[in-house]
Amino acid sequence: MKIIFFLVPFVLGGLTVVQSVMNRSIGIKYGWPVAGMLNNTVGFLFALALVVALVFVFQGKGVAKIDEWHWWYLLPGCFGMLFVMGVPYAVHALGASKTFVILVASQILFGLLWDFMSGTAVISTLRVAGVLVALAGAVMVSLS
Q1: Are 85 and 40 in contact (CB under 8 A)?
Q2: Which of 15, 27, 28, 72 has the fewest C-beta atoms lying within 10 Å of its C-beta?
């Protein structure tokens, strides 16, 4: 496998911790809504600049075309906003290590459920054992 497929999520995981700790500092100083609004505004402007650049580079060929609109297209943005607002608050209340162990265990569990429900992966004993180990780790870190 290409190393980039492992490197990208690894780097993004590290950036998530840094982002959350920085948002925690902003939230403590200015309030959680301001921290979330600032983060989402900067994210929106960055995404807008990226889309404009892609449209310019590819001259609209397959970029930024929406053939049919669905209401649920708004949900990922709402989920992202909840993530950006919730994780720094959790880091403030629980600390970074507890927050991210619980977060990762939850992602592993729901990823397994998603794969099962969508039929994209076979649920094996080894996968279920891995999820149980991750959840046990989350419990152990939370109790310490």
Answers
A1: no
A2: 72
